[in-house]
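Morning F.,

Quick status update on the modeling queue. The single chain you submitted on Monday has been processed. Sequence for confirmation:
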Amino acid sequence: MARVTKHRDKILEALRNLFRIHKQAPSLNELCKELGMKSSQRGTLQKWLKSMRGIDVEWDDNFPRSIHLLREEPEEAQIKISPEETLRYITTGLVEWEQRKPEQRNNVPEGLRIGMSQMYLQSLLQGDKSAPQNLPEFFKWAQNPFVEEKFNSEFENLSPEITLIDDGLTSDFTRQWQVEGSNITKEVQEKVLQDVLNHCRGNQLEAEYRAFRKLIITKPVLKYSEYRRMLLSSEFRSLRNYLSKVYIDLDKFEEHEFYHFCPRCGYIQRKRANGTYNCRNKFCDILCVKQNLPPLPAISKDEVFENYKIVTPGIHQYVTIPGIWEIYLAEELSKLGIRVTLWPEIDEYDLLVELDKNNRWAIDVKDWVSIHPYITEVNYRFDATKTLVVFPDEREDTLRIGVVRKQIEKELGGVKLKLMSEVIEDAKKNLNKSTN
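Structure tokens below.
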């Protein structure tokens, strides 16, 4: 009979959590961190483990990271499907289907096709076949209360009255979950950041959100050892589940003999038909040439195997690429000795620039090809002395901010348009005034 201690259950739960997210067994230090213990308490942890040895756990004294559970839990399926992701595909496809004319409904919308496939696969992994297998079954299923379905077990605090179809039309709930954009897969992947944002706002995790956002911008490619360290760190502990959704295995994403990476954003490049490589973002390629950035070392297939993680293409396109400019502007202003906060108040806007206690700028950075109608959604902030929408100078050839600025600003209620060089120059002038 197992010797019961007040620490046994905590240790077993910590080990189970670690084995769910890691391929390797944890080191003693990593297990200490997971338990919230200090490194100086390793000796105490060793004593507790010895009392469990041969009963709950075992290890080889001659090999590191060899600890394992003697009574293994049933092995989880290797394929993990996000219910939130599936719901976004389904709702987006359902809205698209509703908007089509009857004669255009011969082809199932991509979102609905992907979502139904994921539902059915998840149903099989759970050992039943209750998920709808065709459109008539799906439309019947979509009229049932959402909370009654097995697929929906991870959604909490939903009204039993919620359905995807209500009186023959898509429900408010469905329209709330749909995503918009030309590439539904990337749009769904990017929505993970919205989940992170909601979680951090709900739990007041401003520092954790800032660290998460900065990580996926500055390190779109991670060695597995670094990814593991991030998962175990206290900084990302509350966002561990989201990290595992944002980062995917590089060798499972694409298979090449050699992997090449963009010198600017650091993401995996695409191989052209002629054997050369280019970034998945065309503007990155242009800037690499303009800035004469040297190529990064390629990595062989053998080195990559199970050793590298990359952010999903949707995160790269919608978060990493525009985020490069946000961090660039923050760093340039910080070099002047100015206090800059990235994504203040858990991403109310991009940069808070504090020249002094009476001079605070709220900045939204936009890496747009043209002035988007969404610019009218940027609200003037009364808690700041200036509210600015800032664009990279490299976009000026197409944006022509110097020409269109006055006309557009008339519609923005005090919000001003600036190029990055103008913001930096204005900051220098303000600093000179304060020192004179």
